[in-house]
Amino acid sequence: MEISSSLILNAIVSGILLGGFYAAMAAGVSISFGMLDVTNIAHPAFIILGSYVAYIVNSWWGWDPIVIAIVCSPLFFLLGMGLYRIYYYAFERKGQQSLRSLAFFFGILFITEVVLILIFGVDYRLVKSVYTETTWQLGEVDLPLRLVVPFIFSMIMIFGLNMFLSRTFFGRAVLAVAQDQFALRLMGVNPVKIKELGFGLSIAIAGIAGSFLIVIQPVQPSIGRDYIGLVFAICVLGGMGSIKGALIGAMILGLAESFTSTFFGPSWAPAVSFGLLLLAVAFKPSGLLGR
Which CATH number fits domain 5-283: 1.10.287, 2.60.40, 1.10.510, 1.10.3470? Predict the structure, then answer.
């Protein structure tokens, strides 16, 4: 195959745009898994749930998916808080949060998928917006707005989240809760409440990422399983509990998948996530920016 500069430039741009979206998908896992020590394997289910909420509102009232994500994020936040309460009283309080809690989140994943299938079927759904079918040309580079718009808002969310977690008392408490709960109690902070709020934040981010996803591509209920390995690979590759690391890891995976799809075919792209995850675990278990 002849490799042209145009092909390489488009692969780079597509990888960067895709990486920005991957960062939005993985940011919630960086909080729940990396900071709160809650292995929420059902995280992609809430991303797909966010996609279907965007689809319903867009179909009924014609709202833009990004607006829907912002408006509905408090509902996902409350959903996350309620889910953590169940998790805490059923498992964490009893010290049984390892294997049993993993089965709990797997159950949430498959229940969500089955409910969505019963309601919407297995057909792919998509949203309509003024930019979903528009592509800008910048010289030899194609800039599809269905990728550009989610990328811009993903970057705003990631940088805002990083500022919030690094410069506020609540953010520092979330970073510390999995390390030393006793010290937090000495400061008059309830670790359970911090974890509840932090988990709610992670689910709210998942819901927002779901609205981005349905802008980028059509979705169907079982597509969430395709992203389980991806989001955890980004979290581990970037460094546990590091939002900056998640962004860097997402960019690496986005570029790797883009080049793989361009030069070897899209069927090879899913193997990239697990391959990089294995390399990270083997040579740098703490991740790129892990503590």
Answer: 1.10.3470
